Structures are given as structure tokens and as C-alpha cells.
Amino acid sequence: MERMGRTALYRDPTPFHTARAEVQLDVEIVILRMPDGRLRRLGLDGASPLAIDGCMRAHVDVYAERRFVRMLVLEHARNSDVLITPPEHGAVAPSVVRLPEAPTDAAVLEPNAWEALADWVIGGGRLAACTIAELARLATIATPAFAVLIGEVAAQRALELGWMSRGPLRGCIDLDAALQPFVQAARYSPRAAEALVSALAHAAGSTRRRR
Length: 211
Known about the structure:
Blueprint (H helix, E strand, L loop, with lengths): L1 H7 L13 E4 L3 E5 L5 E5 L4 E13 L2 E13 L4 E5 L22 E2 L2 H12 L9 H8 L4 H22 L9 H4 L1 H7 L3 H21 L1
Parallel strand pairs: 6-7
Antiparallel strand pairs: 1-2, 2-3, 4-5, 5-6
């Protein structure tokens, strides 16, 4: 029992939980619903994105500690917006480590949402450059209208893969198999489910027109 007690002292339980912002992505804008209910609109047109490692001072009980975070910085002509991963998911950063510090008003996003958004803006915001799996992940943070568009692009990509694979020496890519990333994402994301419905509808229409 004594050994178990001493071992418990070395555990690293999560001592705090930062409030998350909800994110919705459209073609040229990011809409954040902050924990207090406020809406922030971040324009992407003309922004210079940068993804870097940083730290944030998190207040734990009566003291503050520096925690590693991933920072997405959207630089504009007159200001910049910072979105970060949850600091409680990052290890404690020693004071001797020189890292840019996240501002106190930085929006904290869930890791999956942060990664999807960061990949989108760093990649130039082009749906044509995304794989079907990347489109499915992007749909989870999309606005309703953008989710429909993402589904249409995914359907066209899946149909093209199927058409290219047909032939006497080629296999045939099944539409359901090609859209499997959307099926999986739809299990936990209503937006991905909407994108999947859009993809299936678009694929059905395209198939009829091709016939």
C-alpha cells in the first residue's frame, strides 16, 4: 500500500479544463462561438496563416504553469487572431524553453477541430487539393452550406476514382467504400452526416446523367 501511495504522487492527472470554443468553417470565414456565448468572425481572405509551437500560462489552483500548445496564427494587416489546442493536453513547459506565448484571448479548440482547420488554411483553402478522408474531417467543422459543397466535391472525387478504375485489367472502386470516411465521421458529427447525404445525392444524379 505504501508503494502504491508513493506511485500516486508521480501521476500527472489533468488539474484543470479550459473552456472550448465551437468552430464553424465556411469558404472564407471562421465562426467561433466562445464559451461565454459571444460570436467571433475571423476572415480568411487576405490572412497569412502560421502554425507554430507555443505555450500558454494556465492557472492551476493558486499558481500558474506554462503548458505547451499548438498555435494557429491568422495574421491580418491590422491585427492577428490566435487559436490554440487545449493547454491541459500539453506537457508542462520549463521556464528556460523560449516559445511564443499565446495571448489570454486565444480561442481554445478541440484537437481534432484545430488540426482540421489548421490543415485547411495552411494548405491554401482548396477543396480540390483534399483527399476524401481530408474532406470528411473538414466536414465535421463546416457550416451547413459548406458541408453540402464538401459532400458534392467528395462525390465527384469518388466517382472519378470509380470511372478510372474500370477496365478489363482494373478493379472497380465501390462508391460506398470510397465514401467510408464520411460514414465514419457521420457517426459523431451531424455536419459530416449532412455532407454524406449531399455526396450520395450528387453521386446518384451524376450517375443518371452519365447513363
